[in-house]
Amino acid sequence: MNSREVLLALAVFLACAVESVEAVTLVLAAGLTRGWRSAWAGTAAALVVLAALVAALGPALTSLPIGVLRIAVGGLLLVFGLQWLRKGILRASGFKALHDEDAIFAEHAADLEGERRGAARIDPAGFLVSFKGVLLEGLEVAFIVVTFGGNQHDVGLAAIAAGAAAVVVVAAGFAVRAPLSRVPENTLKLAVGVMLSSFGMFWAAEGAGARWPAGDGAILALIAVTLLSTSALIALLRRRRLAIAT
Amino acid sequence: MKRAIAFLDFLRDFFIGDDPAIALTVGGAIGVTAALRGSGVADWWLLPLCALLILGVSVLRAGR
């Protein structure tokens, strides 16, 4: 392998690893909070759509309106994430019960109904979050392979590097799955809300034409700012609740 | 019919949620960011600022 090929493989590996981390984060978020059946179903459906698009379009893939997709996926993730943060903040500050009894009852009733029918229940929200995340990031990985590989006339090597990045990141995701499942439910939902909102802000703004100062690195800053804002709001509401109680 | 209503309920809950102001603000901020495209104005901060502001307003209103 000459130096040009090493550089191509390294660049594609790193770029695709970043995209894969984003996709795996969303699948983990959906799986841990909405159930693994829905998360896997969403992932599988996205991979099927992605494979069909790549097979049908090939190098013409770059003509897809990725900006519009980013706005749609990012906007939905942001709205969804902010709703989770809202509920999580109200629960953490004591303004909402930690366990919503009506929702728990409805969930158990639906479970029982599902068992009676012998049908496997798919949670639509969990399905959609993982579907959108994997499809958008998968498309971006395919773009990277087509553009980087096409420019260097070595799409095969670019595809191998992208596949290796995906395998490494998915393996890391599997490794952290078990420890994450022991985190308390509301803490986990707050963390997922922070992740969904941050990715949503990044993609939607990028799709609308904004240029992030540090590229993909801006996601880390968005996560930090969203986490700080969430903590500040919880502290503020806890003080307000104490003032009301006394 | 019951399934259609349940699906519409899910869509409303997924896209709008407990506070419609969140979805409206996010939609508006994306629209303004898109309108500023090519104007030379740095616009990356607009969506995060609007999103976190509406989150604060929404929880503070709910926690009265």
> What is the helix content of chain A?
over 70%
Q: How many strand elements of chain A? A: 0
Number of domains of chain B: 1
Helix coverage percent of residues of chain B? Answer: over 70%
Q: What is the string of helix and strand elements of chain A?
A: HHHHHHHH
For this entry, what is the oligomeric state of its chains? heterodimer
- Derived structural class of chain B: mainly alpha
Give your account of this protein's structure.
The complex is a heterodimer of chains A (246) and B (64). Chain A is an all-alpha fold. Chain A has one domain (3-245). Chain A is 83% helix and 0% strand. Chain A has helices spanning 3-34, 36-57, 66-92, 101-117, 124-151, 155-180, 185-207, 218-245. Chain B is mostly helical. Chain B has one domain (7-62). In chain B, 73% of the residues lie in helices and 0% in strands. Chain B contains three helices and no strands. The chains are: A mainly alpha (246), B mainly alpha (64).
Search tags:
heterodimer, A: 246 residues, mainly alpha, 83% helix, B: 64 residues, flat
Short summary:
Chain A is mainly α and 246 residues long.
Secondary-structure blueprint of this entry?
The complex is a heterodimer of chains A (246) and B (64).
Chain A: H1 3-34, H2 36-57, H3 66-92, H4 101-117, H5 124-151, H6 155-180, H7 185-207, H8 218-245
Helix pairs in contact in A: 1-2, 1-5, 1-6, 1-7, 2-5, 3-5, 3-7, 3-8, 5-6, 7-8
Chain B: H1 2-15, H2 20-35, H3 46-62
Helix pairs in contact in B: 2-3
